[in-house]
Amino acid sequence: MIQRNRRTFMFQVAAGGIALAASRAQAQATGAKLEESDPQAMALGYKQDTTKVDAKKYPAFVPGSNCDNCLRLEGTPGSDYRPCSLFPGKLVSVRGWCSEWTPEI
Ligand code: SF4
Question: Is 71 in the same domain as 42?
């Protein structure tokens, strides 16, 4: 009986993990793109295209830096838009940039 309960428990844990992973994938696939007009995006100088970054306003901008090589980018590589830890529920352009850019280690 205990053996069966353990097996049932392990199955439920595995099923829960699969459901959580599917939920995250769904959230990534359906998240709204972060608009440059979003107040937080504006405050951080977010641009969907790094060529549009105002380097005079943001002298810390390093040519070649973008969301794709930022430590805060999340999600699965290969997508043009991915989650960022600074903008929960939104997707940022991998070719974008904001003043919180942090180089990958
Ligand atoms: Fe892009 Fe990094 Fe800014 Fe997020 S924190 S928007 S990944 S540069």
Answer: yes
